[in-house]
Protein 1
Amino acid sequence: MAPAEGTDPVLTDRLLLTPIGIEHSDDLERLYSDPLVDHWTGPWTPLDVRAWAQDMADRWASDGVGKWVAHDRSDGTLVGRGGLSRVVLGDKTVLEVGWVVRDELTGRGYASEIGRAALGWAATFFPDFPVVAFTEVHNLASVAVMRRLGLESSGVIYREGLVEGQPGLHARAPFALYRQVPTDRASP
C-alpha cells in the first residue's frame, strides 16, 4: 500500500516501514550489533549510528527519499531497515534499493518484502528515476533477493567494500549491479 505522502509510513502485509530519523537510533544500534549485519555493514559505534540516522532524516528532508526502519506489524518487533537512496552511478542519478534484516529473522522473506515496498514506492513518487541494487559479489543472499525482485544483472561496479577471503575494507571491491527492468521491456 503506497502512502499518501512520500514521507508517510508504508504498510506491507507484515511490516510497518517508517522513515528513519534520529529517534530510531536505539533500534538501529540493535540492528547493527547483529554479527551478520555487522559483517556486511559494520563496524558501527553508537555515534556512527546516530550520525547515520541523522543523515537519513536529512536525506528524507532534502532528497525526498531515504531508508525506513522496519517493524513487524503484529507485535512491533524490529525486523530491519531498508528503502531507497539517491546515488550517482557513473554520470546518472539513480535510486538504490537496499535492505538489512536482523540475523535471527533472515530467510523469512523480509528483505524481499522491504525491496518490493521500495520498488512500489519509487514507482509512485519517482517514476522517472532508474532503480538499481548492488552488493559485494559474494553476498549471495542479497543477490538472490535482487533476482526475486525481478532485477536484472547489469555487470560489476567497483567501490569501497569487502573482498571475499581478504580482511578489511578495500577501495575497489567488486559489487554485483542489478537494475530494474524498464516496464516497456517487461514481459506481459
Protein 2
Amino acid sequence: MSDRLGLRERKKRRTKQALIEAAIRLFDEKGYDDTTVAEIAAAAEVSPATFFNYFSAKDEVVFADDVLYDGLLQEAFAGRSADEQPEDLLLRTIHQLSTADAWSFPFDHELTRIRARLIATVPPLRAGALLRNASLQQRLAHALREAYPEELDALHAAALTGALIGAIDAAMHSDLDREPTTDVVLQAAEIALRGRR
C-alpha cells in the first residue's frame, strides 16, 4: 500500500511540475493574457479538469512554490544558534532559501529567470507578488519576534524583514537585463541588513 501511495505522490508531483513548466513557457511565448488554461493543460498533456485539481487559476501556477516557504523558514529558524544575531539568522535563512532543492526549478534555471521577468512585467502577476511578499514579510517578522522575544520589538522585527523582502524583490525584478542569481539575492540581503559595504 505504501508503495502505491509513493507512486501516486510521485505522479502528482510530475503532473504539477509539467503544468508549471508548460504555463511559464506559454506565458513567455504567447503572453500571459493570451494563454488559456486549456492550452496549458494540453501542453502538459493533461485535461483542463486536471489543471484545476492543482490550481484554481492560471496565476497560481507562477506562484506554485509559495506553499514551501513556511516549511523552509521553520527549518532555517530551527537551526539557530544561541549567539546568532537577528541579521545573521535572516542572512543564513535567505541563503538556505535560495539554495534549497525543494523549489520547482533551481535558482539559475531558465524558467526561474522567465518567471522573474513575468512577475516584473505582467501587472496581475506583479500585484500578486506584492501581496504574497507582504504576507511572507509578516510571517517572517512574527517568526523573528518569536526567536528573539527579549531583543526585538514588533517594529524592529517588521523593519528588518521589510527591508530584507523589499531589497530582494528589487534585486529580482528591477533590472531585467541582469539575470537574477543567488549572489545578487545575497548581496541585496546583505545591503538591506548591514548597509553598504
Protein 3
Amino acid sequence: MKDFFENSISKLKKERGIFHSEDDLKLSLGFIIKELYPELEIRLEKPININMTDIYGNKSIVRAPIDIIVYDKNGKTIPIELKYKTKKLETEFNGETYNLTNQGARDIGRYSFRKDIYRIEQYLTKEEKSDFGIIFILTNDENYINNNVGEKETFDKHFSCHQNSIIRKEYKGWNYSKIDAKKYEKKDNFWRYINQNKKHWTFTGAKTYKLELKDDYPIVWKEYSELNKSEFKFCLIKIKKHLN
C-alpha cells in the first residue's frame, strides 16, 4: 500500500492526459486503483462528519463528502481529496474532444486547497484504521503554480500554493487590507457592502471556517501532461495521522 497512489498516478498519466471535469478525474482514478489493486475496495463521495470552527468562534459538525476512500482487506482506509482547476482549453486527446472552461476564482481555489487538507486531517483524527491521507491537485492554470501571491498584497496572500511554497499550519485568514474600501465598510466587526446590511462573502458560508492545521505542508508541482501548448501539473500532498 505504500506506493499504491504513485503507481496509480503513473498509469493514469499514460492513459489520460486530460479530463472533462473533476468527476471525470475522480472516476478515472478510482478505476485505475481498482485495476492495479483488485483487492482494494473503492468508495466515491462518502460523507463524513467533520468538526469545524468559524471565525466567530462557533463550533459545528459539518457533513461533507470525501472524494475517494480506499479500503484494504484489513479494513484500513486511505482518504483522498482531489482538485481539478482549469483554464480555457480546446483540444483533442486519443480522438476525444475536450473543451475546458476558465474556472477563475483562484482566491477561493487556494482557500479550498487548505480546506481539503483540513478535511483529511479531521478524517484521520476520527478514524482509528487510517494512518495517512492524500491530496491530489491537477491544473493547467499556471497562476496556481507560478504566482507567489504570498509576496504580494493580494486578498488571498495567506493561501498561496505556488511552487516550493509551504502551507503553514497557522491560519492567518483573508488579507482584509486589500478589501475594496469603495464597496465595503467595517461595521459591527464585519465587512459589509456600503449602505447595505449585506456581509462581504468571506463572512458567510464555508469561507468563514478557521482552518488551523496540524502540520506545515511543502508544495511541489510536477509535470503531468502537455496538450496543445497547455501544460498540466500536479501536486501530491501526503497527510500523516497525529495522535493528539
